[in-house]
Structures are given as C-alpha cells and as structure tokens.
Design goal:
The chain is 19% helix and 36% strand. The protein is α+β, with helices and mostly antiparallel strands. Strands 1-2-11-8-13-6-5 form a 7-stranded antiparallel sheet. Strands 7-12-9-10 form a 4-stranded antiparallel sheet. The chain has a two-stranded antiparallel ribbon with strand order 3-4. A hairpin with a 2-residue loop joins strand 3 and strand 4.
C-alpha cells in the first residue's frame, strides 16, 4: 500500500487514482517570490555536472545538467534553498525522503526521455515527489499498457507533482523537447532510496 497521504491544500488536483497508481498535482505550493529565490540560489550554488550515456553505439551528452544529494547528516551541508525545499515537500506529503536529484533544463533543447524509476533504487510503497522551479515545462505521463492513458501536465514554478510507487510499474514519464523559446527550469526529484548500511537504516527508519 502506497504511503501517499492526501494534501490538505485545496489546490491539489488528483490526475489519476486507481489500481495502477496515483498522480496528484499541487499548484502554488511555494509562493512565486520564494520559488524565484530558491531557483537563483540552487542554480548558482549547486555543482552541476554533465553526464554521458551510451546510445546507439556511441556516447552522447545527457541533454540537461544534473546533481544529487543524499539527505543524511554525514553528507555535509546542503545549500539552504535545497534544505528549505525538502522541508516544504516533506511537510506537505509526510514522506521521509532521503534523496534529492536535481535537473537543470537550460532551454527547450534540454529534456528527459520517457522512463520509469529503477525499482531497485527506490523503496517499495513510497512515492516520488517533483518540485518545479523556473520556467514552465510539460511532463508527459503515459500508461505502458491499455488503456493507453496519457497525462500532459504543465509543471509551473512552485508546483509539486507526486507519483505513487505503483505508477513506476505502469507508467513512464518524461520532459519532451520544445522548439519555442523557453527559460531555464530546475526540478527537485525527492525519493526514498534504500539505506546504504545497517547504521543508516536504523537511523532512517526509527
């Protein structure tokens, strides 16, 4: 059973909620001025990296910049904006996230192909939460099997999208490229990942 509580906010829109999973979108979780300040700090302070992946027998650049932080004390200090963003999402969802992945989409040429999370990298029953900052980008969520439901969600600054664990079994999600001019966007993807060792597991699940 997914640990995905209902938000108290009236701005939440439940996009799907059935045996294949639950997807909910909350607009305006973070005020515009706060979202803009977080965007500026995270863009400036995070050590963004370019990754390369093997595709069609050649190495290519991943079309976005990436970063990752493990949300445990021994990992060191987080940028203040990330700490505040994580606290906000945890407060809204009640989920004890322990990992945040960041993506910087510099313009419309940056994207992420349709995919689902690797199930061995997330703890069963816990959702994935996506907090958006910066320019609006569309996420496409597609069912893998009939009925071929497609959800297109415009992710605005300060919004939160929450996908239950089950959605990773039955849907893919991605950010397609767009041709029109668009500003940069940062997404914070919060997950509950398996503990690295017994000591961490004991502290995390207490």
């Amino acid at each position: 059973m997914s640990q995905l509580p209902l938000f108290a906010s009236a701005r939440e829109t439940v996009l799907v909620d059935d045996d294949r999973g639950r997807v909910a979108y909350t607009s305006g979780l973070v005020p515009d001025d706060v979202a803009a300040a977080w965007f500026a700090e995270i863009r400036e302070r995070v050590p963004w990296k370019t990754q390369r992946r093997r595709m069609y027998d050649r190495d290519v650049d991943v079309p976005r910049l990436m970063a990752h932080f493990r949300l445990v004390p021994e990992e060191g200090c987080l940028p203040e904006a990330i700490s505040a963003a994580v606290e906000t999402v945890v407060g809204a969802t009640g989920v004890p996230f322990n990992s945040v992945g960041l993506n910087l989409y510099r313009d419309g040429r940056d994207s992420v192909a349709p995919h689902n999370d690797h199930l061995d990298e997330i703890v069963e029953g816990f959702p994935i939460a996506l907090l958006s900052l910066g320019a609006v980008r569309r996420m496409s969520i597609r069912a893998k099997e009939p009925p071929r439901r497609v959800l297109n969600v415009d992710l605005a600054a300060g919004s939160l999208l929450v996908m239950s664990y089950e959605t990773q079994l039955h849907y893919t999600h991605g950010i397609p490229k767009i041709k029109r001019p668009v500003g940069p966007r940062i997404s914070l993807a919060l997950r509950v990942k398996p503990a690295r060792d017994a000591a961490e597991e004991a502290s995390f699940y207490r």
